[in-house]
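Let us work through a complete example step by step.
Step 1: write down the sequence.
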Amino acid sequence: MTTSIEQHPDLAEMRARFERATTTPRAQFTETLALLTGLYLAASPWIVGFNDLTTLAVTNLITGVAYCAIMGGFGSAYERTHAMAWAGIAIGAWAILAPWVVAGNVDTTRSVVSNVICGAVALLLGCAMAAAAMGTGGRRGLSARRAGRPPTMDPMV
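Step 2: predict the structure and record it as tokens.
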């Protein structure tokens, strides 16, 4: 008799854990801020006024769209996208470094301040999503299963 992996009890429990992780107000707030941060990063050359710095403008546009795509997948497909939170951290770090790394003389005050603040926010939101991803399983879920009670999302437990 063969059974589908879709019916496996551990898979159902994992999906339920991921569903609980994405429906918390904290996760929804973090995802919303991440999407807004990515949109701002993509549009920042035109908002702040350094769109004449073509290399940095294109870099911010590409990284902002990528950040939105990566961080926006958490609400709809968390079980498949939670591991990509580390890419969001890398994009945030790149946004901080970009004014000094991309070709040309693009490190003006406006571009540096905008990229450093937006990159720091993106980095912190990526860390928050990575921490949420690590908190959905791990020791708390395993020890709770061994004790015969459902795993909790409360970090104080």
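Step 3: interpret the result. Residues 137-146 have pLDDT under 50 and may be disordered.
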